[in-house]
TrEMBL record:
SUPFAM superfamilies: Cytidine deaminase-like. The lineage of its organism: Bacteria, Bacillati, Bacillota, Bacilli, Bacillales. This is Cytidine deaminase. GO terms for biological process: nucleobase-containing small molecule metabolic process; pyrimidine-containing compound metabolic process. Its EC number is 3.5.4.5. CDD domains: cytidine_deaminase.
Length: 44
């Protein structure tokens, strides 16, 4: 997986953020050594 593909995964994850107060969405994507991608976002 390229850096750009990993960034794209983080941008997709960001869309699941729930930010009624700060209005600041954050997404993250972690690539493991065995090729799995774990995604997350902020929820307040």
């Amino acid at each position: 997986m390229t850096k750009q593909e990993l960034i794209a995964e983080a941008l997709k994850a960001r869309e699941f953020a729930y930010v009624p107060y700060s209005k600041f969405k954050v997404g993250a994507a972690l690539l493991t050594e065995d090729g799995k991608v774990y995604k997350g976002c902020n929820i307040e």
